[in-house]
Write a structure and sequence with these properties.
The chain is of the alpha/beta class. Helices cover 47% and strands 13% of the residues. A six-stranded parallel β-sheet has the order 5-4-1-6-7-8, with helices on both faces. The protein has a two-stranded antiparallel sheet with strand order 2-3.
Length: 221
Amino acid sequence: MTDSVIAVLDIDGTLIDSNYQHALAWYRALRSVGETCPVWRLHRLIGMGGDQVVTAIGGADLERRVGDQAREQQGREADALLEEMAPLPGARDLLVAIKERGHRLVLASSGQQRHVDVFLDKLEARGIADDWTSSADVGSSKPAPDLLQVALKKLGAPPDAPSVMVGDSVWDVEAAKRAGMPAIVVRSGGFGDDELRQAGAIAIYDTPGDLASALDDTPLA
């Protein structure tokens, strides 16, 4: 076994199949404030912090006019879709496999605390993970590195502690790069392999279960 490292795992889209529901929730939220944006454009932004999505869609003016209202409505729209969000294949197996190898594990989410609580229950992860985060823990969301830095602080680890990030989007990979972490990616984010590799992903797998089966080929051996 390798020396222990800290595994920082994204939840939304990486462990829980939620990306397309979040894109639809954003679509409905923006429609509610008089803005229509193609769902495919919204999907490309999922994984970026929700505090940045409205600006990415329509610039600072749109953010100033409807940003807070759109985010609040997006949260309500996502609430209505929580029942449809389920663990991806092998998600819990991956958590167990990481812990069995003696690594520490933090589930890193910038989602709202009520959503994180639901996902932890769906994954039966409270007794496995060493800690987890929510939007209440960070000032700047992905692709800023703050979320990953907070994850290390949750365990009392220094910023340069040996660590690996597992995510599903280019935003995860970019955040990991800024935090000085290698990033492993699953394809559930809907991004192309070329995009993920160009962003800096060191390995790509179809599902969390596939990654769990291949841990010996990664820094989480």
